[in-house]
Amino acid sequence: MNRIKNIILAILYAGLVISCKPEIHDVPVPATGGVNFKEYVALGNSLTAGFSDGGLYLEVQQQSYPAIIAEQMKEINTGLNFNQPEMPSGNGSGYFKLKTLDLVNGVFDFVILPPDATWTNKIPGTYQNLGITGIRVRDIAVNGYGANTTQGNPYFYRILGEQEANKSYLDVVSESNATFFTSWLGPNDVFEYAFSGGSDGIEGQPGTGINGLTPVDDFEASYDAFMNVMAGKGASGFLMTIPDVTNIPFFTSVGWNALAMNTEQAAAATAGYAAMIDPQVEAGVAEATINLVATDTVLSVGVIPDLADTTVFLQAYQAAIAGGADQATALQIAEDYVESQEGIAKIAFLESELNVELPAHLLGQPTSPELDPLFAIIDEQLATNVELQQAIAQTRDQITQAYEAGFLPSLEAVVAQQTAAQITALKAAGIYPTFIAGNNGFVIEVPVSQANPLGIRQMVAGELVLFSIILTDELTPQKAALPKPDDLVLTLEEIGNIREYTEQYNDIIEGYASTNMGILNMEVVYESIQAGAFIDGVEVNADFIQGGVFSLDAIHLTPRGYAIVANSLIQAINQKFGSTIPPVNISDYRAVILP
Questions:
Q1: Rounded to the nearest 10 degrees, how much is the dihedral formed by the CA atoms of 477, 478, 480, 485?
Q2: Where are the beta strands (DSSP E) in 180-325?
Q3: Are residues 195 and 176 in contact, defined by beta-carbon separation less than 8 angstroms?
Q4: Partners of residue 98 on adjacent β-strands
């Protein structure tokens, strides 16, 4: 199979952007406005820490958006201290580096730089950048969250002293002397579910909720506890909302239908799935049909005649009682009736009705309402009568042996007909993979259900493939057409869950807006990046690598991306509080480092 098209998107433009000499404008004198910038504290997760390229290392850490903002705040407060829990020089926690780039064929390759051996060593101190990689809002009040480097969060562990292992993140925040703060807490309450393909469900892994979506009530309670701490300090601040993560390169770099095939490849893949599916469908149809025939046969012989006879007898008995007969007389009347020609005919008619509608009932299809009480008796017999169950099993084995020996051509014809009908239905439902020359939807694994007995289907428009697939062998010619596991894709249902919870979390965050608390809508910031812009002589967009904003992990930002976030916050702070913190020139901050 040829290289999968539309998977690798790294097409870079070369050359320098040359801009005209900027004009000199009046620059406002830096002023605080209505804010006390004596101590600025930044709260959040990896995005606040400066995480980039799949890791946290010194160079990107020093260009985190809080560090950029703090540096600009020094124009107002020259004595501002802003300390970050800096990584050791070198690779920090380890990160991706672009190893090769083939512009002609659109192929790139990563090398993963190993972590520094000392990166988890404790460096207790007082820090103003409290961005902790991996933290969720639901985690902030957890005591022992940084207890050790294995069961706890190592990024939190390293900033705690030896006697502080049982502290929560909220404890550390409460010890700060913040007069102004920014908070980008919340993204990880959505990210974990999204980045794991929703494979552990909304609730996530038992006990921890890892890879799940934080219950909205838990999110609100934890966020409220955090805001109460900050309110107790009298600090002003800005809260940042959660953008729609499904629009970042981690979910947009690989198309749902990026499985490109020529005519021969499409035919071979279609035939390959047919060779796998058709026997599976036929076996399932044969098993179900034989079981139906065996059950129908045993019931028709061993249950229905007696049931019809008993039913007609009881009807005659009840009619006699209603006519005034005593019990003994009514019993004799009923006995005489079932032995009469009229009674025998009525029993035969009822027996025929039951036999005609029995297959439909066994298949769960509607039957005549007047027969429902009798079919309820049959169902009870099937569930509780051990001898009946044994008779059905024995009959099923006998029919199976005869079928497999080729002695039942009529049954074979029925199985063949129903197999063809089921295959047609599976194809119509998109469950039976078929391929064409051109782009095709990837095949994905889904839960086996009555509607989808195969447990696979092709992706549809709007569904997403995770960027992490590039780091696997799932796109190699040998495996590209094979079913993709759930942790590498997001279905429409999972995308709906992400957006629903994101909206509810953001409603909670936005509810804290007040005269001294601003809200920065990060979806608006991200949408402006996705739309593309020309800022400070640099073109930026949300494309992987060439867009300049997102780093090699396709999730976190480059220093240039963090500079855009810093400027967005600076602008919002100035507008909200009347301050004049100067913005930065984003061209002073790098994008992805090319090989």
A1: -150
A2: 180-184, 236-240, 259-261
A3: no
A4: 110
pLDDT tens track for 312-358: 999 999 999 999 999 999 999 999 999 999 999 999 999 999 999 99
3-class DSSP assignment, residue 534: strand
What is the rounded CA–CA span in Å between residue 503 and residue 498?
9
Using alpha carbons only, what angle is made at residue 221 by residues 218 and 225, rounded to the nearest 5 degrees? 140
Cα 350 to Cα 420: distance, rounded to the nearest angstrom: 34
Distance CA 347, CA 356 (A): 14
The token duo for 191 is: 């990210």
Average pLDDT, the chain: 92
Structural contact between residues 293 and 285, judged by C-beta atoms closer than 8 angstroms: no
Parallel, antiparallel or unpaired: strands 456-458 and 107-113: unpaired
> What pTM was computed for the model?
0.84
Structure tokens at 165: 């292992």
The answer to whether residue 12 scores a pLDDT higher than 60 is no
Q: pLDDT-derived band of residue 150, with 50, 70 and 90 as boundaries?
A: confident
Residue ranges and CATH numbers for the domains of the chain are 40-259+488-588 (3.40.50.1110), 271-423 (no CATH)
Please, are residues 226 and 282 in contact by the beta-carbon 8 Å criterion?
A: no
- In one-letter notation, the amino acid at residue 460 is V
Q: What angle do CA 143, 212, 148 make, to 5 degrees?
A: 30
